[in-house]
Amino acid sequence: MALQEVESLRALADLRDRHLRGLGYRHLVFVPQPGCAVGVAFLSRLPVLRTSALAVGELDGEPLRHIVEIEVLDRGRRLVVLNNHWKSRNEGERRTAAGRRRAAEVLARRVRQVLTEDPGTDLVAVGDFNENLEELSDWALQAGLYDPWVELPPRQRGSAAFRGRWQTPDHVLLAPGLRDERGFAYRRGGFRVLRPAFLLERRSGLPRRFAAGGSSDHLPLVLRLGLAER
Question: What whole-number distance in Å separates Cα of residue 38 and Cα of residue 23?
Answer without folding.
Answer: 25
